[in-house]
Design brief:
The chain has 6 helices and 5 strands; from the N terminus they run βαβαβαββααα. The protein has about 150 residues and is mainly alpha-helical. It has a domain of about 100 residues: Rossmann fold (3-Layer(aba) Sandwich), CATH 3.40.50.2000. Helix 1 links the parallel strand 1 and strand 2. The mean pLDDT is about 90.
Length: about 150
């Protein structure tokens, strides 16, 4: 298992890992520039997103774009990008259930592959640069056309 990223709990997690069976196999990679994250996504089988405070889910979208199935806490901004049981799993903040979903993806490569492919397709379809540019253009067009239809006061 490789844990990537800085954070306030990194030191605590490293200490706990020393007490776990197999803890010596956990790699704490620390923080990396955004450009290097693609390498970690490419080497991974599953993306685990246990944050309850991340409100946008951008790392989740990046992992999905790389074809990774995801397990995430069902909180804040992750539901806008990850559909439960389609691209991975949205799990309530229950440790045992979260661990079960991660284990399920590790133990079932066919499920992992299917969900990862769906995740990649979903991001390409709904969050690609061209799709987002079109959505932004449509918003501007709507604003401009409504402004023309509004009567001016004063």
């Amino acid at each position: 298992m490789t844990l990537v990223g800085p954070g306030p709990y990194l030191r605590q997690a490293m200490h706990r890992a020393t007490k776990l069976p197999g803890g010596e196999r956990i790699i704490f990679a620390g923080g990396y520039p955004k450009e290097r994250m693609r390498d970690f996504y490419a080497a991974a089988d599953v993306f685990v997103f246990a944050s309850c405070t991340e409100t946008q889910g951008l790392a989740l979208a990046e992992a999905m774009a790389g074809g990774l199935p995801c397990v995430a806490i069902a909180a804040h901004g992750v539901a806008w990008v990850l559909e439960d049981n389609v691209h991975g799993f949205l799990v309530p903040q229950v440790r045992e259930l979260f661990a079960q979903r991660v284990s399920l993806l590790i133990e079932r490569p066919e499920l992992r592959k299917r969900m990862g492919e769906r995740a990649r397709q979903h991001i390409e379809r709904h969050f690609s640069a061209s799709h987002m540019a079109k959505r932004l253009f449509d918003i501007y067009e709507h604003i401009i056309s409504n402004r023309r239809n509004m009567s001016r006061c004063g």
